[in-house]
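User: I've been trying to design a sequence by hand for this structure and keep getting stuck. Would you show me what you'd pick, starting by listing the structure so we're on the same page?

Assistant: Good idea, let's start from the same input. This is the structure you sent:
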């Protein structure tokens, strides 16, 4: 299980097999690229259940895992790695900047 940086709030995350996009498991058991639609586990037992659901629904994704979140009115990843993953692909921004200077 993913280490919990603070609190008990967690979501299940993975990368979609078809295109590598970061996705989150929602309450309906579907994978969505929107963090704000992710199913939330609010305690340790809930996190275990959520991870098991993610593994069962994992046919279209790679290696589901839990991500610790902060609930400050909006669900926000706690770790820098997960903040980068949730914000989208960074190489698009880098490539756009490189084209601008080419």
């Amino acid at each position: 299980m993913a280490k919990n940086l603070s609190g008990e709030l967690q979501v299940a995350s993975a990368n979609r097999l078809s295109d590598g996009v970061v996705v989150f498991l929602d309450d309906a058991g579907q994978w969505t690229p929107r963090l704000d639609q992710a199913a939330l586990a609010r305690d340790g037992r809930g996190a275990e259940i959520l991870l098991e659901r993610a593994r069962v629904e994992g046919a279209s994704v790679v290696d589901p895992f839990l991500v610790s979140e902060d609930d400050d009115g909006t669900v926000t990843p706690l770790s820098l790695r997960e903040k980068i993953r949730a914000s989208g692909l960074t190489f698009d921004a880098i490539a756009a900047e490189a084209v601008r200077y080419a």
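That's my pick for every position. To get oriented when you compare it with your attempt: DSSP finds three helices and five strands in the chain. Residues 50 and 69 are 14 Å apart (CA to CA).
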